[in-house]
Amino acid sequence: MKPKQVLSQVSDFDLRLLRIFRTVAECGSFSAAESALGITRSAVSQHMSDLEKRVGMRLCQRGRGGFSLTDEGRRVLDAGEVLLAAVEDYRSEVNRINRQLRGELNIGIVNNLVTQPQMLITRALKELQSRGDGVRINISMSTPGEIERGLFDGRLHVGAIPFNTPLSGLDYSQLYEERSYLYCSHEHPFFQDPEEPDHRKLSTADAVVPSYRMTAEAIELHQQLNCTATASDREGIAFLILTGGYIGYLPDHYAANWVGKGQMKPLCRERLHFDTGLSIVTRKGRRSNLILETFLESLQGADPAPLQPGG
What we know:
Layout lengths: L11 H16 L2 H8 L3 H15 L4 E2 L6 E2 L1 H28 L4 E8 L9 H11 L4 E8 L1 H10 L4 E6 L6 E16 L3 H4 L6 H6 L1 E5 L5 H8 L2 E6 L2 H9 L5 E4 H9 L3 E4 L5 E11 L6 H11 L11
Parallel strand pairs: 3-4, 3-5, 7-8
Antiparallel strand pairs: 1-2, 5-11, 6-9, 6-10, 6-11
């Protein structure tokens, strides 16, 4: 019987193949990994074949039955995660020694913060990028809950999310506040009405409510509406408002573009609004990471103010 191949050493090329393998496993198929990796499906397939040759094992099944990892593939993936984490730990330690920034910053941002006029995140990323070409910035746009899960499982180094109900394993630092108003579109009956809608009209009009966690103030205001639709993020809320069939709350900086074009207007501005704190979030007990610490210092200074529930 032919002896199984022994992996004698691990090269930079092997690490690249392992990262591709991790992405393929996360995406669940070669075609889904194609866009995530920015390479063609045939290139993804070739890289996976190269890795299987390197380790001497079949790592996944692909074909008409769909994509799945073999038992060996799951074990190699787990071992690869340990190896890649060790490489990142080594890189962080060397960075701390020579103070040169090299490595990755994985940041999760809730959708539609780019229109926030203070642009603190943009300026901090710009400063980080200016420190050298050894930093790779990876941004993922997602829901607050998914960002928190990414911080817990290590996929993300830092997140930017609304501050609602803090989770015990995360640290929250105040970034800024944003104000949300109740909006309708130019196709909604409320838009042309010269008088503000009263409580009865508002309570019977179809409205959209976020499916993510909200502050007590935001929950109370939504309870006064006839919420017949939900949305997982702000863009979904905007889509439904723009149909002309729903009213809903949006941050003023995000709605400003449509308001300026005459496609939306706020309703009862004086009384129907709420403020939400935006926070930078990291995992408690996280590994020391010079790139992350540099980003946080650029963002908020050396001593960011901690957020308290309701603050």
